[in-house]
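Need C-alpha cells for this chain, all 249 residues.
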Amino acid sequence: MKSSEHRVFFLGEDDFVSSQQAEINETDSFHIRKVLRLKKDDKIIVVTLEGKFSAIIVKDDAPKILVVLDECMESPQTATKNIYLLQAIPKLRKMDEIIEKSTEFGVYAIYPVFSLRSPLGPHSPLLKGKEERWKRIAMAASKQSRRSHLPVIHPPATLSSLIQDPNLFSDALKIVFWEQEQDTRLLNLLPLVQSHQNIALCIGPEGGFTLSEVDELIQQGFKTCSLGRQILRTETAGPFAVGFIESVS
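Here are the C-alpha cells for all 249 residues:
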C-alpha cells in the first residue's frame, strides 16, 4: 500500500457517511487521484475532530473519494492558547493574506468585523462567496503548515454586535491594538498573556479604529496596547500578534 505522508486532508462532521467512513471533498479528491495518483486500497492521512488517522481509500470512481478510517496516529492536540482574531475587514485581497498567515501562525478562530473605516459594508456585493473562499484559504494554509486544527472562520459581523455579545470572550484576555497607545506595548502584557488560555486580539482596518470605537472596546473590557515603535499595516499586525503570542505560550 502506498501512503501520502506529505499531505494531510481535513474531514468535517458533514463529510462522514458513517462513524468510520467519510467522503473527501471534490477538490482534494481530484488532487489525490490526478496529482498523487493514489487509488483504491492506498492510504492517506486525514484529520478529524477526534485526531489524526491513516485512512484507506475504498472507492475512487466517484467525484468524492470514499475512505475508511484506519489507525489513529495522533490524538487531538490541546492548544496551549486559543487565539481569537477580530479583524476589521480591509481590502479583500489583504483579508485573504491575513487569514492565510494567521492560520499558519496558529490562530484558533477568525472573526471578520465591519468597522467605521472598513472599505466594505455588510451589504456589499463584493462579499458574496467570500466566506467560503476564506474557509478554503484557511484549509490550504492549515495543510501547508501541517496543523491538526482547522481554524473557524466566522461570518462577518459589525464590531459593536460582536464585542457586546456576552457569550463571546467572557473569560478571555481582550486586547485591541491602537497606534495612539503610548505607554503599553504587547510585551508589557506578557504576564497576562501567559496566564490566560483564551486571548482575543482586535485589529483595526487601514486607517485604524475611530476614537469612538476604541472607547467602546475599552468599555467592553479590551486593553489597548501597541505593537512597538513602528505602525504595522493591518495585513501584518494580526498575523504578527498571533505569531508572537503563540511563540511565548
